[in-house]
Amino acid sequence: MLTPKQKSKVIEPHKLHEKDTGSASAQIALFTEEIEKLAKHLKKNPKDNSSRVGLLKMVAKRKRLLDYLKCVDSKRYASLTKSLGLKPKA
Length: 90
Prior knowledge:
Blueprint lengths: L3 H8 L12 H21 L4 H24 L1 H11 L6
Helix pairs in contact: 2-3, 3-4
Function: Forms an intersubunit bridge (bridge B4) with the 23S rRNA of the 50S subunit in the ribosome.
GO molecular function: rRNA binding; structural constituent of ribosome
Family: Belongs to the universal ribosomal protein uS15 family.
């Protein structure tokens, strides 16, 4: 889990307005950060299956949000995938 300070640091470059915490781009940035942390954990603890299930759920949710963002605002989708280092969907 990310601390509130870490969350605000992750959301800051991707928020749409001053009090934004729930936009698709902010949520995608948070999921990406949590996925990276959990992937590191699973490399050290390969038998932790409950964390693996959580990771798969997070990846699926991030994919749904990315698909939504691509349909709604393709320019923001392109800039977000580039800034987070994700592969854009063709």
